[in-house]
Amino acid sequence: MTQLNVQSWTNSLFVPRIDFSITKMQVKQYFEQIYPIGTVSRVDFVSFNSEKGVGRRAFIHFSKFTNELVKETLLNEGKYDVCLDGHNIRLVINEKPVPETKLNLNQVAHNTEFIGDEVKNQQNKIDELENKVETLETELANLRDIVLKFQSYPMSMPQMMPQMMPQMMPSVQMQPGNPFMQMYLPRPVDMYHMQQQWTQPESTGGISENNIYPESLV
Question: N or C: which end of the chain has fewer CB atoms below 10 A?
Fold first, then answer.
């Protein structure tokens, strides 16, 4: 059983190859007067340069299609051949016709410029996000290094704090009087007493929360 290649009708025809000498007016006159099949509303030419060679395609749009024989042949067989001013051309149904725009050239140019600006803005945002990601990756790598050092070299917390903070908060530690620094960094006197407590031998009582932070320093 043979299955027919049935297509949907769009009032638009596609010509895979048409000679460069043929003009849009010739196409319109041919299909409206010489070989009338309907009323041509628009003709679009598109040049191509591929492995198969250099050429030009045509898209013929109709506001009204009146030749039922050509229409039925295209719907059932998928093609229809004609001779236009001595040039053989093949007609097929244009399945995805581009709708005609109501904008003038100035409006099209404005829209194109607007789209270009939007693309540029989006690219700037992408670049900004990429820079933030790169910064976060660098800070994450620094934190990993700190963890490895903490695991590899047994040091007391007071000894490690001066080495850890510049790596953990490179932007904060350069700002004197920053609230973050005042909140999380011990005072010099605290650092001194903490160091004394961490370095005391176990015979003196060891390390506890009470002797790290004596009441006199709180």
Answer: N
Other Cβ atoms less than 10 A from the Cβ of 131: the count is 10
User: For 164-192, what is each residue's pLDDT tens digit?
Assistant: 555 555 544 445 555 544 444 555 555 55
Amino acid type, 147: V
Q: Give the separation between CA 120 and CA 217, rounded to whole angstroms.
A: 58
Entry field: residues in the chain: 218
Which residues does 39 contact at the CB level (< 8 Å), separation at least 6? 32, 62, 63, 64, 66
Average pLDDT, the chain: 76
For residue 42, give both structure tokens.
């628009």
Q: Which CATH superfamily is domain 12-93 in?
A: RRM (RNA recognition motif) domain (3.30.70.330)
